[in-house]
Specification:
By secondary structure, this protein is an all-alpha fold. The protein has helices at about 5-15, 25-50, 55-85, 110-135, 140-145, 150-160, 165-185, 195-215, 225-235, 240-250, 255-280, 285-290, 295-305, 310-330. The protein has one domain. α2 (about 25-50) packs across α13 (about 295-305), α4 packs across α9 and α7 packs antiparallel against α14 (about 310-330). The two termini are about 45 Å apart.
Length: about 325
């Protein structure tokens, strides 16, 4: 037996052998989950625009999150029951040596507080800000402005984590915000409300904060439980809008109510479960990069379903936004 063979067997016996291909997660489910997230999140911009004619920003956010919590609670109950019946490890008992071995099913006080903060910021603040923005700007404009979130993630990494500012990042930031300026000047359909643009940019800031915080927390909490707990925290934060929601439910047409429920079950419950799954296997930068596809898909859906025709100047601005994001985040 050669020395290399002896070393390999020793490592294997000690559990230090490199992961075999069969031990690694397959790539196609992760890609499928990323594609599902893109499609559902793109449809959310259109759904918000559609239901926003009959529901105020806070009321729509609360109704959406109430539907999401019901769907997520049912999913958590079903999966927990199935794991118990099969005798497999549950959320609180990660499989030994698996990628979730460091995660806790029942997060401690500090971790639970950060999960709640994440839920309030993303499920609460982001939803209200985006709903308010889409009362003033169209779905395409909102999607393109929120698409600058990866730029904000990269800038935050420099300011908070001390990462190096590269020339490519600087150029990407400049190009992306030139695109934002063009969109603000003309809007995606030829006109834009400055308050609506500011609210959409604020939504992107909350989005970036949510991505950074979620990626850190996924090392301690599994994606399903984190999504569920965050949704509960966001819903609690939105409860002051309950009187408005009850009043608007009585007067809104059924189509708008169905649109709001769709937003809760599909883009929120299902979309965030698939997003969390992808983020737990990919880096924050790579996962966020998949959302480059959200604005083009949103534009197509908005054009087809809402008849919001794109203006040439804003198409140029949107192209600059996406180009800047790619330049800033590309390794």
């Amino acid at each position: 037996m050669t020395r290399s063979e002896t070393t390999a067997r020793t490592r294997d016996a000690a559990g230090d052998a490199p992961a075999r291909p069969a031990d690694r997660p397959r790539s196609w489910p992760i890609g499928a989950a990323a594609g599902t997230t893109v499609l559902l999140w793109a449809s959310a911009f259109v759904g918000i625009r559609f239901a926003g004619h009959d529901y105020s920003p806070g009321a729509m956010a609360l109704g959406r999150m109430a539907a999401a919590c019901i769907a997520l609670s049912a999913f958590v109950a079903l999966t927990t029951g199935a794991r118990r019946r099969s005798g497999r490890p549950g959320h609180g008992t990660p499989e030994p040596g698996g990628p979730a071995s460091r995660r806790s099913g029942r997060p401690g006080g500090r971790t639970l507080g950060l999960v709640a903060l994440w839920g309030v910021a993303w499920f609460g603040g982001y939803n209200v800000a985006l709903n308010a923005a889409e009362r003033l700007v169209d779905a395409g404009t909102a999607a393109l402005l929120v698409a600058v979130a990866p730029i904000l993630v990269a800038v935050a990494a420099i300011l908070v984590l001390g990462e190096r500012l590269t020339g490519r990042l600087g150029v990407g930031v400049a190009v992306a915000f030139a695109g934002v300026a063009l969109i603000a000047a003309g809007g995606f359909t030829g006109h834009a409300d400055k308050v609506g643009v500011a609210l959409a940019v604020f939504s992107a800031m909350l989005y970036a904060f949510g991505v950074l915080l979620q990626k850190r927390l996924l090392a301690r909490v599994d994606a399903v439980r984190m999504t569920w707990l965050g949704a509960l925290a966001g819903t609690v934060a939105l409860l002051p809008f309950a009187p408005a929601l009850l009043g608007e439910l009585a007067t809104a047409p059924p189509a708008a109510t169905l649109g709001m429920l769709y937003l809760g079950v599909f883009p929120t419950a299902i979309g965030f479960l698939t997003w969390g799954y992808v983020l737990s296997h990919w880096t924050a930068g790579r996962t966020t990069a998949t959302t480059y596809l959200v604005p083009p898909v949103t534009v197509l859906l908005s054009w087809t379903l809402l008849g919001e025709m794109p203006a040439a100047l804003s198409l140029l601005g949107g192209a600059l936004c996406l180009t800047g994001v790619v330049l800033a985040t590309r390794r």
